[in-house]
Specification:
By secondary structure, this protein is α+β, with helices and mostly antiparallel strands. It folds into two domains: 97 residues, Phosphorylase Kinase, domain 1 (2-Layer Sandwich); 220 residues, Aminoglycoside phosphotransferase (APH), C-terminal lobe (Aminoglycoside 3'-phosphotransferase, Chain: A, domain 2). Pfam families: APH.
Length: 343
């Protein structure tokens, strides 16, 4: 049994899969993906098939964080819908196997864009990839949660009130220094919160292009990944999360489009992306978008603060990157304040 988030006890995994996964045959090798900061993820190779194992990190964790059981449940429920997900194989909640809970799913081959500029792609491909990202988001928010068995996947009530309360507590629990902008943003969000409009559906919680696998040749999404933050909530949070990411600095750390001539790259403006989403879902113009955008900046700032805390504590999935990401917490806070000011 291992307690290291960077390695995996392949003998223990192979023994478990031999006993519980029909058709599994070793030998088994494992390679850790260096992307992602929450739940350590490994590519499992066998002579016949490749799988992906995603586990909780070891160590003391924040309450309700790293919910691999929820990730497994939501992706299994979405099989057969218009939302592309990897095929789920099994969930192991016995910490004695490898030291923490984990699940195993199919490995989905294809392309992963960690930068929305999609270096190396032509303009037509960029436009088509972003439009398919938009299509999948609209499909996600049109999922009938009762029909797929997810009606109890999130508590009732005002989603934003609940989320701001949750992430404020998570932020305080992982706070390593006073960031005045985050303190102001938390207070400002509570004051600016619009009335609940009754919209309630499945939300991903971290919808970004780097959490998607696209076909190796066609600009089509084959799987949406990283469902840890998914719940029943308000769909505009996912939509605003896309816009929030694009407003971050360009490059390997910010992975945004700030200052980029989007038209020259074939990429849509914020307004065009939102309008296409509304068209697909038959929605009118969205009011209070500044609040939704500010909420996304706040939540991401709180998430990144948690990543920083784990990096300092020595149990981050990628410690070096965790410390670099932690530098962005004030940037997210300032972005949130600016979004509220702009309305």
């Amino acid at each position: 049994m291992t307690s290291d988030s960077q390695t995996l006890d392949t003998d223990a995994v192979a023994a478990y899969l031999t006993a519980h996964l029909p058709g599994f045959e070793g030998p088994l090798t494992a390679e850790k993906f260096q992307t992602g900061q929450s739940n350590p993820t490994f590519l499992l190779r066998t002579p016949a098939s490749n799988y992906v194992l995603r586990r909780k990190p070891p160590g003391v964790l924040l309450k309700s964080a790293h919910a691999v059981d929820r990730e497994y449940r939501v992706q299994k429920a979405l099989a057969g819908t218009d939302v592309p997900v990897a095929r789920m194989h099994l969930l192991c909640e016995d910490d004695n196997v490898i030291g923490s809970a984990f699940y195993v799913m199919d490995h989905v081959p294809g392309r992963n864009f960690d930068d929305p500029r999609m270096d190396g792609a032509d303009n037509a491909t960029r436009a088509a990839v972003i439009d398919d990202m938009n299509r999948v988001l609209a499909a996600l928010h049109d999922v009938d949660v009762d029909a797929v068995g997810l009606s109890d996947y999130g508590p009732p009530g005002n989603y934003y009130e609940r989320q701001i309360g949750r992430w404020s507590k998570q932020y305080r629990a992982s706070e390593t220094a006073v960031i005045p902008e985050m303190d102001r943003l938390i207070d400002a969000l509570a004051e600016a919160m619009p009335e609940d409009d009754g919209q309630r559906g499945l939300v991903h919680g971290d919808y970004r292009i780097d959490n998607m696998i696209f076909d190796a040749k066609e600009p089509l999404c084959r799987a949406v990944l990283d469902w840890e933050l998914s719940t029943i909530g308000h769909p505009y949070a996912d939509l605003a999360a896309v816009i929030m990411q694009w407003r971050m600095p360009a490059g390997t750390e910010g992975r945004g489009l700030a200052g980029i001539d989007r038209a020259a790259l074939g990429l849509p403006s914020d307004e065009q992306f939102v309008a296409r989403y509304c068209e697909r879902r038959g929605l009118p113009e969205i009011g209070h978008f500044g609040f939704y955008l500010a909420f996304c900046f706040f939540r991401m700032g709180a998430i990144v603060q948690g990543v920083l805390k784990r990096g300092l504590d020595g149990n981050a999935s990628n410690p070096e990157r965790a410390l670099k990401l932690g530098e962005y917490v004030p940037t997210f806070a300032k972005g949130g304040l600016k979004a509220l000011e702009e309305g």
